[in-house]
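Incident log, structure service

09:12 report received: a user says their structure output differs between two submissions of the same chain.
09:20 pulled the input from the user's history:
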Amino acid sequence: MNRTNSESLFLKAKAYFPGGVNSPVRAFRSVGGTPLFIKKGKDALIWDADDNEFIDYCCSWGPLILGHANEKVVNAITETVKNGSSFGAPTALENELAELILTVNNYIEKIRFVSSGTEAVMSAIRLARAFTGRNKILKFEGCYHGHSDSLLVKAGSGLVTFGNTSSAGVPEAFVNETIVVDLNNKEAVKEAFNSFKDQIACVIIEPVPANNGLLLQDKDFLLFLREICTINNTLLLFDEVISGFRLCFCGAAGYYNIKPDIITYGKIIGGGLPVGAYGASNEIMATVSPEGPMYQAGTLSGNPVAMAAGIAQLSACLKPNFYIDLETKTQYLINKISELAKNSKVPFKFFSIGSIFWIAFTKLESIKSANEIDANSMSYFRQLHAYLLEHGIYLGPSGYEVGFVSQAHTYEQLDKTAIAFANGILSLNN
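09:34 re-ran on a clean worker, output below:
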């Protein structure tokens, strides 16, 4: 593959940005080689700066559920931006998108738009603390909730720990307010509540953990969290930045029919533009300024261009059988790869839910916690990723990242992907 232009752009970028990128995972350090600089995308395809064409399963890390440059989304953006890109004042488009979401999603009653998933989660944590009057939060190892200080914490060596910071620059004081336990471990959660009785403001979880592999949890575990939070007057916070509007219109809350106290959403509600949101009941949201004492603000919150893109995208998601068709495509893809590569010398398994999929090089039938992922197996993904790029298939450049199928993917493209994927798996060596 010719990467001349991408290599030249990356060389320049290293003089401008730390590591040559504006987000660490883009640096290709996990898979080696030069990151590809993407020039354009249309439907399920993207082209890099050297005009190499790829079938894309990154989809901007999930939000492009309709594919790239969807005509209705693009038209909504261009027509809206003609009237201005930002006002720092209310627009009718905010009402329209909120109404579209809230009339269908009965797991929240009010919503607040922000500018990113990280900002949504950061604000939701503050809301939980303000509403409960408590400071501590409980999170799970293997779930990612953005880069705010109190959430960049990883587990320590005990069953229940305050953990350790996973980033320089995070004060110890923040770490000491965050309890970290393993996923799928009821006993650890029970011990945390016993050890910190009446101190935990919220339990935050990705109900579909999809930032560190696809660590699918049993519904029973999520129901357990709902029950123990209710008993202890602790709020249950579903981080649905990835799963929201991806599994079904009401996200994992709707998929499992479990009502958390607060839900956060990400860029999918803005057609891939910078946007996020958090929502809850009328009672909890009454805590938010200017109605209540919890301050949160943003000049670009409810940005009209993002609102218009979101209205166009989410309206398409409400069409009959939209999510059924996506899941059918996803199952078709992974089943065909598994069949074609069944004689692989390297053990592998696909995990999937809805239109999200993940390949793990493992003999395990299920992987529910981060410590069950074999770090050494990432060498196989590194080889596979390089093979797929050479054969026109683009995945996120890390074996811990999941893939996404969009409405725009055709069965012809899925067939091409399955053949390349299977041949890539069969070519792996120790």
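09:41 both user submissions now match this output. Likely a transient worker issue. Closing.
09:42 reviewer note: The domain at 71-317 is CATH 3.40.640.10 (Aspartate Aminotransferase; domain 2). The first helix runs from residue 4 to 16.
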